[in-house]
Write a structure and sequence with these properties.
Layout lengths: L17 H19 L13 H13 L3 H14 L9 H16 L9 H24 L6 H33 L2
Length: about 180
């Protein structure tokens, strides 16, 4: 007598899965479009960094390996070269951000707060990496006033990004985990 077959669905992680790769590509494209149109969503002249938000959401859902996250960060850094006033800095800051996000998602946190906490900390890591690289390469020496102003931008951007990613993670997670 033949045994009954059972089929179990598993959610593959990383970029080797075609659906995950497509999700990252679509998210990056959305991030580019929103970055170019970000002026409509400003708080005191500051707006979310949609590229950081989209790679945070991608990494949160896809759960790539560290080197895959680094590639996502480098691609985001390359895209960030569009319209920047400080070229090349984003390559380093987005690389740091993507790696930090990849490491943070490994920390066991309640599912409800995970997008909020990880995106906030990732945006701060990326933002302060940007500030440090700007201080080294463009604004040397950096005054305390400039540092405080850039810090305020980092915090507001982190707050906006974590809200966006938290809200979007619910439907994207449902779609990806049918």
């Amino acid at each position: 007598m033949a045994e009954k077959r059972t089929v179990t669905a598993t959610h593959e992680t990383g970029l080797k899965n075609l659906n995950n790769l497509l999700l990252v590509g679509v998210m990056m494209a959305v991030g580019v479009v929103l970055r170019l149109c970000a002026g409509f969503l400003a708080v005191a002249g500051m707006h979310p960094n949609f590229l950081i938000a989209t790679y945070c959401l991608s990494i949160l859902i896809v759960k790539p390996k560290l080197r895959e996250a680094a590639v996502i960060g480098l691609i985001s850094g390359c895209i960030s070269q569009i319209g920047t006033s400080m070229p090349w800095i984003n390559l380093g800051s987005e690389l740091v951000g993507a790696i930090v996000m990849c490491l943070l998602i490994m920390i066991p946190l309640p599912k409800v707060v995970k997008p909020l906490v990880t995106t906030f900390l990732t945006t701060l890591a990326s933002g302060y990496s940007f500030v440090a690289l700007a201080a080294i390469f463009y604004v040397h020496p950096m005054t305390m006033a400039t540092f405080l102003q850039m810090s305020m931008v980092c915090f507001v951007t982190a707050a906006l990004n974590c809200v966006i990613v938290t809200i979007l993670s619910i439907p994207v997670n449902r779609i990806m985990n049918k």
